[in-house]
Amino acid sequence: MDSLKAKFFRYLLLCVFSIFFIVPFGYAIYTSLLSKADIGNLVLPGRWTFENYRDIFVNSDVLIWYKNSILVTLGILVGNLIVNTMAAYSLARLNYRGRGVVFFLVIGMMMVPYQVMIIPVFSMIVDLKWLNSYQGLIVPFLFQGFLVFLMRQFFITVPRELEEAAEVDGLNKIGIFTRVILPLSKGAIGTQIIFSFTGTWNSFVWPVTLVNDSRWYVLTVGLNTLKNRYFEWPNLTMTGVVLLTVPIIIVFLLFQRHMVQGIATTGLKG
């Protein structure tokens, strides 16, 4: 009976906290469906309109911004899955000289504020003539120290007996990694996808620093220009918020099970 009460209060507490996250997004959706005449009023669904979404798509380059955001996000995501995962496996399982130093540098990168690196990285991008380009938006973020650390902690939990059995069967290190380790890492990889996607999709400081041509704007930068243009119309501003947030919600719903599994197992010695 006590466990039932504890479970009830736990779920009640979760429901209360969830309201604080759902209500703002619900308000954004509601406001995005209001006409200019209904702003600030309580309006029934019969008077809701999608005119704001039509205005955004017709009177701006939001489709180009969506395309840029999708290409940049996918480029960084694929790069992260390859580079971070392989780097993490080498730090967790391979024995080579200087491995501890490399891991120390990865940890050190996590401690350096992102803003500190913007100026030197920007100078390198200028020297490479990568302003207003996909490579300038993607390449600096193909390696993420936190995600390397996350994947390394998971790989440490994988029993070594599995790798030893694979070696007996004749697999080399690459075969063990691709055919044994990766299939067991779906939870950690799902977690990495969510972190990498949300971090890249919501990125603003670097894209607004690197890009000065509207044809290369990502969605966050482009919608910010709309906010400046329509600052007196909250319905149009909230329309942009919804357009930016929906893809994140979709990705989270697709990979939330893997994220919970990855967080629950990462760092636990198996």
UniProtKB/TrEMBL annotation:
Annotated ABC transmembrane type-1 domain residues: 66-254
Superkingdom, taxonomy of origin: Bacteria
Family: Belongs to the binding-protein-dependent transport system permease family.
Record bears the keyword Repeat: no
The species this protein was found in: Paenibacillus brevis
Keywords of this entry: Cell membrane, Membrane, Transmembrane, Transmembrane helix, Transport
Lineage of producing organism: Bacteria, Bacillati, Bacillota, Bacilli, Bacillales
TM region(s), chain numbering: 12-30, 70-89, 101-125, 137-155, 236-255
Entry's localization field: Cell membrane
Main location: membrane
Keyword Membrane applies: yes
Record membrane topology: Multi-pass membrane protein
Protein name: Carbohydrate ABC transporter permease
